[in-house]
Amino acid sequence: MLLIKNGRVLDPGSRTDAALDVLLDGERIAQLGANLSAPGAEILDAKGLIVSPGFIDLHCHLREPGQEMSETIESGTRAAARGGFTAVCCMPNTQPVNDSASVTRGIVERAAAVASVRVWPIGAASAGSKGEALAEIAAMKDAGIVAVSDDGKPIATARLMRQVMDYCRALDLPVIDHCEDASLFAGGVMREGPTSMRLGLKGIPAQSETICAGRDVEVAGLTGARLHVAHMSTLGSLEYVRFAKKSGLRVTCEVTPHHFTLTDEDVRYDTNYKMNPPLASRTDREALIQGLADGAVDSIATDHAPHHPGSKDVEFDRAPFGITGFETALALGLSGLVHPGKISLMRLVELFTTGPAGVLGKERKIAAGEPADVTIFSTEHAWTFRAADSPSKSRNTPFDGRAFRGAPMATIVGGRIVYRREAAARA
Ligand SMILES: [Zn+2]
Ligand SMILES: [Zn+2]
C-alpha cells in the first residue's frame, strides 16, 4: 500500500481541487479523502505538490522494433516516466511497421517485460503504411492497439481515408491523422515564410496541413468515424476542427509543446529545429494557445521523435524530422501556458489526462477502484533540462539547457513508483 499525503489533488473529471490524501492498494486506488491513515503503508509526502491522474501521451515514437539505435521501449518509457507520463501511445512507423497482430503482440510483450510505463500501441492504417491496402486492423485491435494511424505520412487519398474510417468506425477505433498534402509539402524542410526565405531553406506552406485537415473532416462527416488530428500546427486546421465539433462530428485534436512554445522565427541552422509539421507562424501559435484555453484542443501530445545523434548531425536539408519531448512537456505547459495566465492549472491537467483519455474512449480519474496511475508534480520547482542526463537514447531537442519552473516529481504506474525526482534536487 502506498499513501500519498498532504498533496493538492487536481482531478479534472470530478472538478476536484482540494487538499486530500490518496491511498493506493496495489494496482488500484483504494481511497481518496482527508487525513487518511493506513498502518504499514509506505508514505509519499506530496506537501506543496499537485497530485493528478496519471498523464497520457497520445503520440510518441519508441523506435522498437528496428531502430534501437535511436530509442527502445525500455529507454523511451524511462524518459516518459521522468516526464510524468504513466501511459504512452507509440506510433507504428517502426521496422517492421506495426501493421499486423504479430508486430503488435511483440510490442505488447516487450513492454510488459521492460517498460516503466504503460505502452498502448497504435496500429498502421495501411499495410506497411504504404497507402495502398488496409492493414490487419481488426486483428491488431484484438492484439491491443488503441488507435490507427499512418503517422510519418498522410493517408494519400480521400478514398483510402474513407475505407480506413469505415473500417475503424465499425471497430470503434479513432483514426489519428498526420495531415500533409504531399504535393504542397514537396521536399520542404521548414514553414514557408520570411524566415525560410532569409535562411534559404525550402518552405512548406501552412496549407499543406490545412488542406488535408479539411479533407479529412469532410471524410469524417461522410463516414461518422472518429478522427483525431495529430500535432496540429495551423490556425486553418484548428478552424476545421472547430467547424467539425460545432457540426457534431467526432473530431478531436492534439497540439505539441513545441508548437505552442516556438515559431518559425526561432528556426536556425540547427537540426533540432526541424520537425514535421514545422514550427508555424506567430499567428498560428496564438490560435493554438486560444484553442488550448477554450477547449477546442483536446490534448497536449509530445510527438517524442528520437533520432540518434549521428542522424541529426548533418545538413538541415538532409536531417530527419522530429525532436524528443517527454521530459520537457509538462514544464513547457507550465511555463508557456499556466504561469503567464493563459490557461488554468486544472485545464493543463485536463490536457494531459482526461483530454487524451477521452480521445481513446477511456476515462481518467482519481477515485476508489480506478487504476493506481498518478502523476505528482511541482508548479514551482526550479531546474534546468539537460538532454545529456536523459535516459532516452537520443538528444535531439531544442530545449537542451533551458531553465524551467515546475517539474514532474513522482510518477506512479499501477501503484508502483516508477520515477521519483531525488530529494536533493528538490531543495
Ligand atoms: Zn506525424
Ligand atoms: Zn509522430
Mean pLDDT: 97
Structural class: alpha/beta
Dominant shape: globular
What is the percentage of strand-forming residues? 15-25%
How many alpha or pi helices? 15
Distance between the termini: 27 Å
Bound molecules: zinc ion
Low-confidence stretches: none
State the total count of DSSP E strands.
18
Q: Main sheet, how many strands, which sense, barrel?
A: 8 strands, mixed
**Helix share, percent:** 25-40%
- Computed CA radius of gyration, to the nearest angstrom: 20 Å
Helix and strand topology:
Layout: E1 2-11, E2 16-25, E3 28-33, E4 42-45, E5 50-53, E6 55-60, H1 73-82, E7 85-90, H2 101-114, E8 118-123, H3 137-143, E9 147-149, H4 158-171, E10 175-177, H5 182-185, E11 190-191, H6 194-199, E12 203-204, H7 207-223, E13 227-229, H8 235-246, E14 251-255, H9 257-261, H10 282-294, E15 299-300, H11 309-312, H12 329-338, H13 345-352, H14 354-359, E16 374-384, E17 403-413, E18 416-420, H15 423-426
Parallel strand pairs: 1-4, 1-5, 6-7, 7-8, 8-9, 9-10, 10-13, 11-12, 13-14, 14-15
Antiparallel strand pairs: 1-2, 2-3, 5-16, 16-17, 17-18
The protein binds zinc ion (2 copies).
Residues 151-152, 178, 230-231 line the site of one zinc ion.
